[in-house]
Input
Amino acid sequence: MQDVKVEELTGKALEAAAVWAEANQRVLNQLVEFGTGAAKESIRLYAEWQQNALKWFHVVETNAQAVTKSAERLQAAAEQTGRGIQKTFTETVDRMKDTYARG
Output
């Protein structure tokens, strides 16, 4: 009878160990899946950051080009205005010379 109890206890202990081994295996698998998912999410996030950075650099480049074109147009307008002012004063001086030369 005592041998039966020892065998029964041994069997239950082995069964309990198997249950815990299975639980440990399942937990380990879940942790591995979680780690894999976290790694994939990190890679996705990095890719999104990279895409956003590229978009941002493109926007900055586009804005820089727009500012450059605007500055070129302003420079051209300033040069044209300067030429117009110079012409006006040259004509005015010539007219004043004519006015005083006549006498």
